[in-house]
Amino acid sequence: MFVLGTGAMTAPAAPIAPVEMIAAQSAAAAQTMLASPLRERMRVHSSSLNVLAGQAVTATGRLRPRLRHAAVSLQVLDGRRWVSVAHARTGARGRFALRYTPPRTGSWLAQVRYRGVGGMSSVTRRLGVISAFRTALASWYGGGGGMACGGQLTSSTMGVANKTLPCGTWLTLRYGDRSVRVQVVDRGPYVAGREFDLTEATKRALGFEGVGTVWTTG
Fold first, then answer.
1. Greatest pairwise CA separation for the chain in angstroms
2. What phi, psi does 151 have (nearest 5°)?
3. CA-wise closest residue to 208 among 217, 218, 197
4. Does the domain made of 41-131 have the CATH classification 3.20.20.60?
5. CATH class for the region spanning 135-216
């Protein structure tokens, strides 16, 4: 090839050898992998989310690929923000176990969170609702008529009667393996030792009979 102004001929560029091409392609692929975070997967194998106050909530699972010593946290929703309340490190096979003892009775939405590091992507798994209960003696009532908190009592009214909790207070009741979330809708019961009167609909939803002990977050 002739270059104007020099009168000299320049040799064409030497073709890239196949080995050099493969090396260049491998380097480009490696750069692409580094630029794109690896996908992590998380499985929660078991969880115990309903406990009596003072007992620990537990959640176990595995992070994949098998990433050892990865930091995993249990988070609860406090208002509008997620707060980490328990931490664990994964074992050799990516397994983890989290334990958390709620400081009081109540219910909180919960999730397990891994913040990706070193090119790994973050991953979050919702657990459900953590509930810490206390025990209370309860009975049930039916019929009709007006309720102390307003409205008319019917066979389909969900709620409980309580002597001291403010009208409209939300609480979770658990009996056996059933749970319901209801409000205080009436006043009572007026029998010594009993804290709650369940409406007929609440009784049916829980499979509750007669007088007995329920778990409550209220």
1. 115
2. 90, 175
3. 197
4. no
5. mainly beta
